[in-house]
Design a protein that fits this description.
single chain, Nucleotidyltransferase, domain 5
């Protein structure tokens, strides 16, 4: 019986506002779209195309979120790990192997008996199933930030997604922080 492999990646770790979002995905290697790579290396149009293909082809996928309040309380690294654990926990099919983008794996996954957890630096570019997770996390989070933009249009979240752009910093100075800003981040 072939092993079931899951890829996990996060989006929004370096932002000044909004949650950190992780995606876990299990997809047959033959259904991974040709040309998939790290979401940051794809255009928004291409990400959205891949997103639809991945979701319709996935054996199982799940989203995990850690809020800006959790980030402020426990720090961004622990929050990213927490969102990864939440994404894993939401899978309807449990894998034999999890490949995670980055140098470390969440403690909660490493403690699961029989589960092999492999952290891979630049995994979102080097491992296709992790690239799929990267696309899911990025597109889902971008959608959340577009929704937040409707509540706070003066900040431009739809455009910069909460990242520390010149425009975002200028708007923070002009309008102050919102309830979705990470209060512990400095710029």
């Amino acid at each position: 019986m072939p092993l079931t492999i899951c890829g996990i990646d996060e989006a929004g770790r370096g932002c000044l506002a909004g949650p950190v979002v992780s995606a876990a995905v299990i997809i047959d290697k033959n259904k991974i779209p040709s040309g998939i790579k790290d979401s940051k290396q794809l255009t928004e149009l291409k990400r959205n195309e891949f997103y639809k293909i991945i979701l319709s082809s996935a054996v199982s996928y799940s989203i995990g979120i850690a809020s800006n309040l959790e980030i402020d309380k426990i720090n961004i690294l622990k929050s990213a790990m927490l969102s990864m654990e939440r994404a894993f926990d939401g899978l309807s099919v449990k894998p034999d192997i999890v490949i995670i983008d980055g140098p470390v794996a969440p403690d909660g996954l490493s403690d699961i008996s029989g589960l092999k957890v492999i952290p891979v630096i630049k995994g979102d570019d080097r491992v296709k199933v992790v690239s799929c997770a990267s696309v899911i996390a990025k597109v889902f989070r971008d959608g959340l930030m577009a929704d937040i933009d409707e509540k706070y249009p003066e900040y431009g979240f739809k455009k910069h997604k909460g990242y520390a752009t010149v425009e975002h910093k200028k708007n923070i100075r002009k309008y102050g922080l919102t309830e979705i800003h990470r209060k512990t981040f400095k710029f």
